[in-house]
Design a protein that fits this description.
Length: 341
Amino acid sequence: MSKKVAVILFNLGSPDSKEAIKPFLMNFFMDKNIINLPLPFRYLLAKRISSRRSKNEAGDAYGELGNKSPLLENTNAQRDALELSLNLNGGNDYKVFTCMRYWHPFASQVVKDVEEWGADNAILLPLYPQYSTTTTKSSVEDWNKSSSLLGLNVPTAIIENYYDNKNFIEASADNILKSYEQALKDDHKDLRILFSAHGLPEKIIKAGDPYQYQCEQSAELIAANVSKKLNLKIKASDCEPLQMQRKNNIDYQICYQSRVGRLKWIGPSIDEALKQAATDKKTVIIYPHAFTQEHVETLVELDIEYKDFAEKLGISGYYRVPTLGISEKFIAGLADLIKLI
């Protein structure tokens, strides 16, 4: 007998207007998983940071995008693609819901939508491939709190991560390979792939958060897959530029972006990685392997700010690999994970 299965896509959320930037940031910094201070102190610090950043760094960044982010629209596109994939061959009736952590649609509204739909089961799916207490754990806690308050009582499963999922790795490698080949066509020969993820304060990792390890594992698996695909092309085409890429030993490095505040963060930072690439006279191919859709960190931070920084360093080629978005292989991988439950 088929069941009605609600799939909840977790994502960060983003402001949808200039007026929303400050309250969005306030919600973000009020999260105890982000700033682990007693409530009165967390409130005061969150208020100060959100006020300053809405006028400066964040305000400027969202200003580049018309004072809003396309994150919600891009997440909804993934929602629609996943729902279509899940319902292709009959069986259970799947409905996919977008649920944001720090801006609309909040968990409190989505819980009501799931209950109104009459779900028999729920599956929580973060759009973060790597698990962190600051992302997946925070979203799950928020969902559980809203479910409890509103009386939603259905069997619920959680897909905590998929950093090593075959489809995620394959789809990522496919995207990188397109940029890699374009760089070769543009006559760049010394290429370095930079896998860039959102950074975290070092103390969070030392407290047991697995995020850094999972980011490193994703990068290693994707790099190996890119190398494998390049070798197959070498054998098929005897392409001289590809032969120069040392076959089984592609050059790559993991780095971290989006640092905020004075705490020591995990590294190397993307600034440091770009400086090293400039010293080594490398062309860089940047892939944000911890993001699965385009938003301010990719469209502004990587495409504008760090591209400009790379040019000032004298880096001869700067390529940014698109996020997975609605990649057929990626969406199929998510659908497979859901159907295994």
